[in-house]
Every structure is written in structure tokens, then in C-alpha cells.
Amino acid sequence: MTRKIWNGVLLCVLLLVSCSQEEIPANKFMQYAVSEFPAFDDADSRAVGTPDLGKTNWQKGDQILVSLTSQKYGTNTSVLNYDGVTWTSDVSLPYLVGETPDIKAVYAPAYQWTDGKLTLKENMMAGTEEYIEARCDIRNNTINLSFANAGRNYSRLRIATTPNLEFAFSANGFTPSGQSGAVNATYNLRADANGNAFLYGTFGQGASVSFLTNYVMTWAEHNFNTPTLAGKSYVLDATDNPKNHPYRKGDIVTLLKNPNGNCPGCGKPSDETPTGTIESVEKMENGTIIYSVKLDHCENTIRLQEAAISGKKHLYSIGDVVNCKKWTIEYCPKCGKLIMNYQATITGFRGIDAQDGKDVYWITRHCCGYKTSVSEIAITGLVDE
Ligand SMILES: [Zn+2]
Ligand SMILES: [Zn+2]
To answer: How many angstroms separate the alpha carbon of residue 356 from the centre of ligand 2?
Structure first.
């Protein structure tokens, strides 16, 4: 019997005309009908950051990974490509007319076929992209792929933060899309131009997420009391909230006066009220916010809590581009240009003028990069950008 079937296949290959209809591979004119792309429902109506429904339509370049298992030809895989109008396949998937092949299809941009198995693409982590399984059936040589929220057995987390921010993010108790079983994973994410980054998967009861990146001006964390629901989008508010941290990187601040008059950075006598620049803002595990402050006195960096900082006493921050003016006509000693109204970048805090009590900043002039200092009374404001 087996031998007879083999003979039949050979005959099919060699003498197509003589084959009975039951044994003709039926893939020759195979077509695909793909349903619309299912959008997420917002689980949270708060307006946080810039809301983004995410993908709502198929786009040119989208791909669907398809496998077809025929009793006759075994399992074969293909990739469907969308050209903006129709879906076409790179290879045909053979089966026989009269067979009911087992078809699986998934929209999973992080995955590819490798030797008949779905594997993650290089540098991709599960949970960073969608993984929607289609409901499949075959009728009249057309494979119908139905994508609906039913095929999306996970939720989406929109992390609303600072546009284009790159950050490390931990997710514990998180089952990434396309996976079964919760993991504790660290993701290196980058927010898009709207300040959104996304994770796709299910956060179980007791799951938690948090920013791991130090020196980040914004952060948030969340514990999930109830599991997230399939097809729903959740938002984590990690937008910059000045209430969380009144001081930012680059701010020039005055510290509380040290009772013994010594500099808190080097311990040497210093009768000035210490001043310094915020170099970084970190959030400790217990929620305490720690500022690293580089002292103007000795350029040592010390770590302080907010209470040790008496306030931001200074109008301008490191990196600010400002307009300055001189009261008398003068030539820049480096480039020789006439200096009256000019632009400069604040590079440091020189101290407080003993005569008039005004702040004096280190600056770099834009005419030629000449480094000098200027009193705040000569700064007319920030350059509008
Ligand atoms: Zn010092
Ligand atoms: Zn110059």
C-alpha cells in the first residue's frame, strides 16, 4: 500500500496530467484573506503623556508567519508579506485537495522561522513586540486568517516617559507575549518621539515594574494588585514630575551652611555657603531621592538628600544658552570680535560677587569658545530655541 502511494506521488510529479484530483497538490492557487488588525482597548482613561493606541492597521512591510501541516507533506512554513494592498507568500504550502491541513499563523514581529520553528530574531527580547495568533481555516483554496483580540492573550503596558529616553526597565512576574510562564527580566527600552515605550505581555498578580536606570530625571514603578487583562492597554506614568524631585541635573544649588564652616566636600575651611551643581538624581530602593552634587569649592562630589539643599538660588543651570551684554564696547580677547550683545553657554558657577551679592557664572562665549565669567546682571535671559 505504502509503495503504491509513493508510486502515485512519483506519477504526480512526472505525469501531472494522469493524477487523480485527490492527489494534486492544492497549493498552486492558494490565496490569503487576512482580517483587520485588532486595536487595544484602553484599560485606563487617564490622560498620561501622549496617548498612543499603537498599531491599528496593517502597514506595508508587515509580515505574518504561517505554518501548514499536511498529512501528506508534513509541516511547512512561509512568511506572508503585505505590500499595502494584498498579502502574498514567498513559498507555497503543499497539501492535498480533500485534506484538512492544520494551519497556524501569528503576527509576531520579534520572531522568525528557523528550521520550522519560531525563534526570536537577533537582539530581540520576547515581550517587546506583539504576538497575535490568528484563527485559521481553509476554504476553496483560500486560507482565512482572522486576527481579533481573542488571539491576543496578553495586555500592553505603555510606559509614558521622556521622549527618546533610553532606559533600563525591570519587569518581574511578567509573561512576555508569545511565551508561557512568568519571568523576571530587564529590558533596554527607548521611548519614541511621543515619549512612549511599550511592553507586550501579562503582568500577574504581584508583578512589578520599575526603572533601573540611574541618572534619569524621571522614573516610576508600579505593583500590580490584579493581573492585567488580555487585549487591554495599561499606562505607567513615568513622565517627568517636578514634584518628585525639585532639582534636576545641571541645576546650581546652595547647600545648608555647614555649622563648623568647613566645606562638606573636602573638609577644609570654607566660609562661603557651599554651592554646587546637581550631577545626577537617583532614586533609592526605599524611595529616597539622592542628589549627587559637585561642589564648586573643590569639585568633589557629595551625595545629599533634598533636605541638605537650601534651595535653587540661581537663575541659570549648566548647559543653559544665554544672551549676555556688556556695558562698554570691548573686543573678545580670543577672536577679536566686538562684544556688546553676545551668546554664551553656562558652564559652571563661579561664586557670589562679594561686592554686590550677585551670582557669577563661568561661561563659554559662542563667538569663539572663549572661556570667561559673567555676572548674572549681565545676562539678559535664555536664548529662545
Ligand atoms: Zn571643598
Ligand atoms: Zn571670541
So the answer is: 27
Phi, psi dihedral angles at 43 (to 5 degrees) = -85, -10
Q: Which residues have a beta carbon within 5 Å of ligand 2, which is an ion? A: 332, 334-335, 367-368, 370
Quote the ligand 2 centre to 338 CA distance (angstroms): 8
| Rounded Cα gap, residues 147 and 136, in angstroms | 9
Look up the pTM and report it: 0.62
Grid cell locating 364? 563659554
Per-position pLDDT tens, the chain of length 385 = 344 433 334 333 333 433 444 455 555 557 888 999 988 888 777 778 888 888 889 999 999 999 999 998 899 999 999 999 999 887 888 888 788 889 999 999 999 999 999 999 999 999 999 999 999 988 877 889 998 766 789 999 999 887 888 888 899 999 999 999 999 999 999 999 998 999 999 999 999 888 776 544 456 778 898 999 999 999 988 876 656 667 877 788 888 877 788 889 999 988 777 889 888 777 676 667 888 999 988 999 999 998 888 876 688 888 889 999 988 888 999 999 999 999 999 998 888 888 888 889 999 999 999 999 999 999 998 887 5
Nearest residue to 310 via CA among 244, 373, 251, 356 = 251
Q: How far is the CA of 314 from the centre of ligand 2 (A)?
A: 26
Ligand 1 centre distance from Cα of residue 322 (Å): 28
**Strand (E) or helix (H) holding 2:** helix 2-14
CA of 225 to the centre of ligand 2 (A): 60
The residue among 170, 165, 157 whose CA lies nearest residue 235 is: 157
